[in-house]
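Please, does this match?
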Amino acid sequence: MTKIKKLKICNWSLLFLTVAILVSGIQLEATHSEGLYSVWIHIVIGLLFMGMVFTHIYLHFGKSNWFSRFHRLPSQITRILWWVSLLTLLTGVIAMIHWAGTFSHAAIGGVHGKLGFVMVAVSIGHIVKRIKFFKNKKPAKKGA
C-alpha cells in the first residue's frame, strides 16, 4: 500500500474519530462525567484517536524527532495543534488514572475536557486548511 493511500485511510479515520470524541466529550460535559460506560467509551475512543494521531504524524515525519519537526513547521495552526494535543493527552492520562482508581471526577479531568475542546477546534482548522485532500479526485481520462 502506498504512503498516500495509508494517509488517506488514516485521515478519514481521524475525521470519524474527531466527531466521535467530540460527541462523547460533550456527553460527558452534559452529565458531569457520570456513568461508567460513558467514561469508558470516551477513554476507548480517546485511545483510538490518539493512536491514529500518532500514526498520522508517523506517516508524515517517520521516526525523526517530532519536537524539532513541529518547531520548524510554517503552519502556526499545526504547531499549536501539536502542543494542545500533547497537553490533552497528558491531562487525559492523569485523569484516566485518577478515575480508574476512584471512579470519580477530578479537577484535572475538567482541565482535560477544556483542552480537548480546544484541540478539536484547532483540529477543525487543521482539517479545513487541507480539505482538498478529502475531496475525491476524478481520474484523468486515458487517450484524451
